[in-house]
Structures are given as C-alpha cells and as structure tokens.
Amino acid sequence: MKTEDLIRGLSADSSRRPGLGAGLALALGPGLLGSMLLFTLLLRLRPDLAEILAEPRLILKFAVTLTLAAAASALVLRLSRPGADPRPGLAALLVPLAILAIGVGGEMAATPESSWMTGLIGHNARFCVALIPLISAPLLGAALLALKRGAPTRPALAGAAAGLVAGGIGAALYALHCTDDSPLFVLTWYTLGIAIVTAAGALIGRRLLAW
C-alpha cells in the first residue's frame, strides 16, 4: 500500500471516530484534576487574589496563558488528523504572543527603565521555572493520551503542541499563586517554564505517537 493511500485510510478512520475535540476535553479533565491536586499540595492561592482580580497585569497573565492553551488545542486537533495543514493552528499561536507583546510594551512605556530589570527578575523565578512543568505534567500526559486517539503524522510537533496546551493551563494555575505580575517576568520565566513542558511533549510524543 502506498503511503498516500495509508494516510487517506487513517484520515477516513479518524473522521469516523467520536469527535477528537470531545476526546481531548474529556482527557484533559482528569489531567486538570491531577494538576489542581499538585497545586493544592505544593502551593496556595496568593493572599491578595480577591483584591487584585481586576488588576490589568494579573488579567494579562491569564489572557496569555489561557489563549495559548486554546490556540494550542486547536493545533493539537489539526495535527491529530493525517494530512491536515498545521499552518492555521500555528498562526493562532500568534494571538497569545501579540497579547504578551502588548503587555510588555505597555509595561516598558509606563515604568522607568531603572525598574525593568527588577520586574524581569522578580522574586520567584526559580520556583516558576520548576513548578510550571511540575504542575503541567498530569495535563501533558492527558493531552498525549488524547492524541493517540488520532493519527498524527508529525509526532514530535503534535507532542510539542500537547506540551503547549499543558504548559498554558499549568502556567495559568501557577499564576493563582505567583505574586510576580510584571509582563517582563511573564515573558521570561513563564515562557521558559512552558518551553520546558513543550520540549518534554515533543520528546515523548516523538516516540509515543509514532506509527
């Protein structure tokens, strides 16, 4: 059988299965519970959370992380179907990047240059880089298992997309604890934490999702 015929057959079989979107949502449910359990065991809600829910810098953290998770979910669904063009899903990832860029630009315009490095370094950088991947681990496992219901022809890229989903949600959970609100901190340390999850997804997915 030719490779093209095999891909068409897998694509047709995938389309007859229950919706992959519903499967991803169902798989992420237990993963989210696992991540929330880790959060409960390791962290606590920041004490001023109720008072600063309307603070623009806090809103920015959730806007960036959750739009990243949403855009990456769309990419995961595309990559789970053989032969699907991933470019629209990849383009959607520009949305959280644009939100973060606006936030960083606003921060640099509104604060003196002497304070930029303080905001970038923050107080909890090492915890941020370690805890985002840890909290994201159950979500990553759930997203990768959901991807196995499909037939991704780019397993490493699909695994990386699963890592972005997990990292985005995990970072949003971590933001409930983190008191470093500068967009410069988010740009540096949240991005690094999510990148670790993404790299882990690519490495695991390369083997787990191969067929």
UniProtKB/TrEMBL annotation:
<protein>
    <recommendedName>
        <fullName>DUF1109 family protein</fullName>
    </recommendedName>
</protein>
<keyword id="KW-1133">Transmembrane helix</keyword>
<dbReference type="Pfam" id="PF06532">
    <property type="entry name" value="NrsF"/>
</dbReference>
<keyword id="KW-0472">Membrane</keyword>
<dbReference type="InterPro" id="IPR009495">
    <property type="entry name" value="NrsF"/>
</dbReference>
<keyword id="KW-0812">Transmembrane</keyword>
<feature type="transmembrane region" description="Helical">
    <location>
        <begin position="130"/>
        <end position="147"/>
    </location>
</feature>
<feature type="transmembrane region" description="Helical">
    <location>
        <begin position="89"/>
        <end position="110"/>
    </location>
</feature>
<feature type="transmembrane region" description="Helical">
    <location>
        <begin position="187"/>
        <end position="205"/>
    </location>
</feature>
<feature type="transmembrane region" description="Helical">
    <location>
        <begin position="58"/>
        <end position="77"/>
    </location>
</feature>
<feature type="transmembrane region" description="Helical">
    <location>
        <begin position="156"/>
        <end position="175"/>
    </location>
</feature>
<feature type="transmembrane region" description="Helical">
    <location>
        <begin position="20"/>
        <end position="43"/>
    </location>
</feature>
